[in-house]
Amino acid sequence: MPTWPSLNGVKTVVRIAALGAAAALVLGACSNNSEPAADASPSPSASISTSTSPSPKASHSVSSAVTSAAAGELPTVDGNFGSSPKITVPDADPPTDLVVKTLSKGKGDPVAAGDTIVVNYLGVRWADGQAFDTSFGSSPAGFQIGVHQVIPGWDSGLVGVPVGSRIMLVVPPDQGYGDQPQGDVIQPGDTLVFVVDVLGAHSPEEAAKGEPAPTEDDSLPAVSLAPHEPDINLPAGNPPKKLVSIPVVVGSGPKVQKGDTLVVQYKGMIWRNGQVFDSSWSRKTPTVFAVGQGNVVAGLDKGLVGQTVGSRVLLVIPPDQGYGKAGHAPIKGTDTMVFAVDILGAY
Question: Cα separations (Å) of 278 from 94, 292, 329?
Answer without folding.
Answer: 45, 21, 12
